[in-house]
Amino acid sequence: MISWQGNTEIVTPGNVRSDLVSGIDIGPTSLALAGLGVPDYMEGQNLFGEHFVERDYVIAAKDRCDFTIDRMRMRNFMTDRPFMQAQYRDGSDYMELLRTMNANGELTPEQAFFWAEERIAEEFYDCDADPDEVNNLVDDPDHAEALQYHRDILTQWIAQTDDQGQYPEPEIGLRLVLEQRGDQCVNPEYDALKKETQ
């Protein structure tokens, strides 16, 4: 969602896009709207540029978020961790409410899915038929070809971009986060460093 008070020829009020956009488009779009040039090394596109190329897919990625180490693409690479592992939102009213409801068995099965101790390796949804992404189609033979197509895209993207998520966290980064966050650092990547300080 974009709030804009400038030229309505650039951003038309009430206009809704149905094509795929990515978070990496925010930087180039902001620079362009500010009247600045977009460097060639930026991967994203100006969402309102005349040369915007619609995408067939978007690779979404989640790695370390503050002190929590993760690796999610189309795959959940770190299946030994819950979706709701320790994170910066812990302690907020809504997270504590959800944590309590989960402990008391008050969540629906779909809601409780995110509180499981381990996560599944892959998720594949028909977002038109299932916009809430509840029905995982990974094991459905009718979707095996489409699933493999997307697996291949991800494998190629990881290789082409030298996806940094495939590499372990650098020790210096782990040390700095551990110094700042201490006991909040519960991922196994911190274990060896914690032993050094004991």
Instruction: Give the tally of β-strands.
Output: 0
Total helical elements? 6
Distance between the termini: 48 Å
Portion of residues within helices: 25-40%
Topology:
Layout lengths: L25 H8 L59 H11 L5 H4 L31 H18 L9 H11 L9 H7 L1
Structure description:
There is one protein chain. This protein is mainly α. Among the domains are: 1-55, no CATH class; 83-117, no CATH class. Helices cover 30% and strands 0% of the residues. The chain has six helices and no strands. It has helices spanning 26-33, 93-103, 109-112, 144-161, 171-181, 191-197. The termini are far apart.
What's a concise summary of this model?
With 198 residues, this protein is mainly α. Helices cover 30% and strands 0% of the residues.
Output the keywords:
198 residues; mainly alpha
